[in-house]
Design a protein that fits this description.
alpha/beta; Transcription Regulator spoIIAA; 4 helices; single chain
Length: 106
């Protein structure tokens, strides 16, 4: 992938216990000058309101830093959460990393 692309792959449950570590990963990527940030959620099994909140906060930080942030590989539970909260209109979501690469890195 392009040097301006940083991929973050959290795993397990994205909840209040994981938000600080996740935010630190995003901050490190932004500090390194990432122009494109991909949050690959293939290994996330569940997201609660804290997890959703940290995703939104990271999107705001990315935009402030002039970085584009995308999400890929969400499961059905996360998709339902995004749809119920209208976050599917806020985040650009790709089916998987290959779809992201085909669309964004063409």
């Amino acid at each position: 992938m392009d040097l301006g692309v940083q991929v973050i792959e959290p795993s397990g449950i994205l909840d209040g216990t994981q938000t600080t570590a996740f935010r630190q990963q995003v901050d490190v990527a932004l500090d390194k000058g990432a122009k494109i940030l991909l949050i690959d959620l293939k290994d996330i099994t569940f997201v609660d309101s804290s997890g959703l909140g940290v995703l939104v906060a990271c999107l705001k930080n990315a935009r402030t830093a002039g970085c584009q942030m995308y999400v890929c590989s969400i499961n059905d539970q996360i998709r339902m959460l995004f749809e119920l909260t209208s976050m599917d209109r806020v985040f650009e979501i790709f089916e998987d990393r290959a779809a992201f690469e085909t669309t964004v890195l063409k």
